[in-house]
Amino acid sequence: MSKADHMLSILWMLKQRRRTAGELADELEISVRSVYRYVDALCASGVPVMADAGYGGGYSLPEHFKETPLFFDAGEQQALVQASTFARGTGYPYVAALDRAIAKLKRYSNPGQVLQMERHEQGIEMLHTPNAAQEDNLRELEAGAAGGFTLQMEYSKGNHTAPSPRDVDPYGLVLWKGQWYLVAYCRLRGEIRSFRVDRISGLCRTGTSFERPAGFSAREFLLRSLLPGQDPATPLIPVVIEASEGVLNELCSHWLFGHTLAERGPGRARFLLDEESLLTYVPYFLLPYGTALHIPEPAVLKQRMSAVALKVAQHYTL
């Protein structure tokens, strides 16, 4: 029997009742030392084997684990293989471990089940170009967040600026619109900040540890920092856009406009935006729509749209 077969046999036997290492060795016709190795391997794979020493002791499994089915139904198998496809499409840094898990799932399935899983696996695909350097950084950042140790990173703010070192306490990673962000306490600035992982060029451990704030959510922090209207102290400017229902539907499906939509009527929508977004991001996003939309207010947005359009026209004027 292979190692995997012995491990599975031990698991089935422990699901029935408590057994000593000697009993397991006798039934499987292996040495007690081998039983110890297989039990250690089961624990490493996530099985909660409990070991009690002394008279009446031995190996056992928690009651809640005994009642848990060891196998997945067809819907669960489909979800697992397709979830692995999605994970690969995000640059997930533990693809090798994911492949091993899916291989185990297929190994203990019959040919019909494997064929069905592969059909579902091929039914969904993701376009993703692997970035080995970024995946290495993601692994180290996730390990830092889970282990609570401070990292020193070389970070560039963008616009071709040179990277600079800073120590951070990684609180969590968030995937937003296809981009990975690190939410961390920046020891240089003395506050929690978000950092784009693709701008991190180097990471090393400092030997310092930290405690993550109880109940802290990296996702909620990132949303507050990205979306307008999260800070009550930030004034919001009404933006009215008139267009066909198709154009308005496209606008409202966008993450920024969908979040800031205040009122929607036939051929008309009203949004509440902060000034920074209004003068920087919004004009460049709306410009490709050309005359397909009309902006009754505010005047400052119309002026900014005109200035941006003029700058683009001058750039392409021969």
TrEMBL record:
SUPFAM superfamilies: Winged helix' DNA-binding domain (SSF46785). GO terms for molecular function: DNA binding. Keywords: DNA-binding. InterPro entries: CBASS_pafABC_assoc_protein, HTH_11, WH-like_DNA-bd_sf, WH_DNA-bd_sf, WYL_dom. Residues 137-202 form the WYL domain. It holds the Pfam family HTH_11. It comes from the Bacteria. The keyword 4Fe-4S does not apply. Residues 8-59 form the Helix-turn-helix type domain. PANTHER family: PROTEIN PAFB, PTHR34580. This is DNA-binding transcriptional regulator. It comes from Paenibacillus albidus. The lineage of its organism: Bacteria, Bacillati, Bacillota, Bacilli, Bacillales.
